[in-house]
Amino acid sequence: MSYRAIVVGTDGSPTASVAVEVAQKLAKRLKGKLVLVGALDAYGVSRQPLQTALYEAAEAARAKKVDATAELIEGTPGEAILAAAIKHDADLIVVGNRGMGQATRFRLGSVPDWIAHDAPCDLLIVDTTGRAGPREPAPPYTRILAGTDGSGTATEAVRKAYTLASMYAGTVTLVHVGDPLVGAIKLEEVASTRPDDVEVQKRTVEGDPAQRICELAEAEGVQLVVVGNKGMSGVRRFLGSVPNKVAHEVPSDVLIVKTVDRSAEDLVAGHGGLVNVDGRQLAVYRDEDGQTYELSPRCTHMGCTVDWNDTAKTWDCPCHGSRFAFDGSVVRGPAADPLERVGGTAAAPGVAAQGTEAVAGGAPSLSAAASLGREVGSAAKKPAKKERYAIVGASLAGATAAATLREEGFDGEVILIGAEPAFPYERPPLSKSFLRGESTMQEAMVRPQAFYADNGIETRLGTTVVGVDPAGKTLAVAGGDPVSFDKLLIATGARNRRFPIPGIDLEGVLDLRTLGDAAGIRAEMLPGRRVVMAGMGFIGSEVAASLRQRGLEVHVVAGGKAPLDRILGEDVGRVIEGIHRDHGVEMTFDDQVAGFEGNGRVRGVKTASGLSLSCDFVVLGLGVEPVASFLEGSGIDVDDGVVVDERCRASVAGVFAAGDVANHYHPIFERRIRIEHWNNARAQGRVAGLNMLGRDTPYEEIHWFWSDQYEHTIQYAGHHREWDDLVIRGNLESRTFAAFYMLGGRVQAVVSVDRPADVQDAMGVIRAGGLADPAKLRDETVPLASLG
Ligand SMILES: Cc1cc2nc3c(=O)[nH]c(=O)nc-3n(C[C@H](O)[C@H](O)[C@H](O)COP(=O)(O)OP(=O)(O)OC[C@H]3O[C@@H](n4cnc5c(N)ncnc54)[C@H](O)[C@@H]3O)c2cc1C
Ligand code: FES
Predict the structure, then answer these.
(1) From ligand 1's centre to the CA of 625, what distance in Å?
(2) Considering only CA atoms, which of 591, 585, 529, 530 is closest in space to residue 557?
(3) Phi and psi at residue 534, in whole multiples of 5°?
(4) What is the pTM of this model?
(5) Which residue's CA is minimally distant from atom 7 of ligand 1?
(6) pLDDT tens across 658-695, in order?
């Protein structure tokens, strides 16, 4: 869970200061920004004392190393808090429960009521009753109750309860109100998604949901009740929704998770929102003519839920900064595909003339596109004999190229050969959500399994190519018949480096590249176990974070002075080190693993400097190398991967390469580069497919990647090897910055912590040649986009 911006309102009163303290604790724990808001309303709150109270509260927060700001805003307290939440794109509002007592129960008059119905984000209502004195305000929340009806939206709220419980080593009581049999099944399902370190109790009760939840909360002495906001807005709010009643009656803090915004009918023209349509959460926009666009809210990058940005009038993804227009089309990457159109009354672009057939999917299916007879390059020329294009490597680059061939109308044979038994899947979740048990691999397939057969792409999985004969146009396959081809794409990616370290073959010495590797590590991840990690590159850092998040003890041994210092330099490396130290990772730098000890199974690690570390298992993160040895003797040039030009063409005609294996010439950087990132594999896979069709398309993407560690997202764009100036926009100490790697006055690359938009904007600067005045890069008042 990441609450990156937390807004809390205060009038300086002792009860309000309880809510401030809770907000401050959460901001500190989550490394979020804290915005303290005071309202100057018409009833003449006097400015001076309020200003002083705000100033002192902000100072106190900063003294505790919280990134805090204070603002006085004109309006009622509710208006001021909502305005600040929108301005700062807050993901949590914290308010005290003053005015929410029994007497005002269904009057929408109190400040928290006001906010509860219109909050653009989650809302934590702090029970300040009797807390103004010396009593220590929560959190930590060690006893949490979460109400669920088993629906997808309620499950989202439960997930937040789990995350908080995991953070504070607490327990969660799951409550289902309704038919006990149905409840037992639903609770079983919901409980099965709990993190390993969270203890769950299940209760099924019958009767009035809000009343039962409140009774149980009181009986079990919980400190926090978590509910979804279903019914908090729209017409049902006047009838008294479950969260509304719970917020009024429960004797504890209440977290109302914004799972559903409102019903589609409530949307005002020109606005969007997450709404519930037939029990399904959708991103819906209503235009000025009243037409609606119903979209899947799953960001097409990695599946986070987008949210409506009412200022920019866009759908924004909180994870890595993708932005989509009201109709779902991509405004800004990393996402490359539009949000899926699932319905609505507005006609889908470009299909009105053909009726409504394609509206549901947003775009015609690939086979439909081909059968519509689109003008499709070489396919339109109808070759006399159907050609066969072979792709070796069934992962992101290979699968994207195969899909591109079909999308562009190629009607010959496409054969996708992969050594792994699985259909092509995305690797990023392997070190993140999948490793932590928070997502399944079904959610991370490059394309749904049926896509390949539906689009005439032959897949040969679990099949390893062991040689290539470009003259004879055949592939040698381990244990199988040769495969002929007319054109060939090599997309064999990279594999983990293995060094001849004594004991490396002991059981329990693991590394991570494939789904099988991730499943193997997951099986070892019992809370409290000790892990030694060798190396701390991006994947090593992500694994360390995921292991800590699951409650394991982690000791990293790595060369260099800080994580990633070889690539990012010591200053930025130290920031990443600080993040990991704060999360309890032990790190030894300037050292390396010299041997693994154990009898059959690893029990300890010896380092070159003489350290002895005992452990239950080891994860190696020692970097990767391109998979190209099977090309030996083929005549295809290999030099740190397959050497290709800017059109993905290898040294032999008809042979192409893309993804981690391709050492490609980059026209903007004017040098050869091999990149091991998701975006490169995807974008270059597409360009390789186009060039196989003779489209003469240069690959000039600005390389970009992200790395998620704890609640932080680190992003990098461009390419640098050395730099003569490191320009910082923001602040390294606060861990919110963009750092520009300059050489000869030009920006070569940018790295950011928790500023995804800066990286996307800086890509324009790099694309334009990188010339930029360091003073302007530093100056936060100068929009980066204006420098490109
Ligand atoms: C754990 C992990 C986390 C990552 N996280 C991020 C991230 O957060 N952000 C980011 O930008 N990038 C990330 N990456 C990198 C990204 O996943 C890779 O850049 C991307 O997978 C490269 O895709 P590819 O298709 O070029 O190669 P690969 O994904 O390496 O796939 C190559 C495929 O070819 C197959 N193959 C190899 N040789 C043969 C052969 N001879 N015959 C048949 N098949 C063969 C392999 O088995 C493999 O399936 C991560 C990678 C890993 C491992
Ligand atoms: S998941 Fe949306 S930008 Fe990454």
Answers:
(1) 11
(2) 591
(3) -100, 115
(4) 0.68
(5) 428
(6) 999 999 999 998 999 999 999 999 999 999 999 999 99
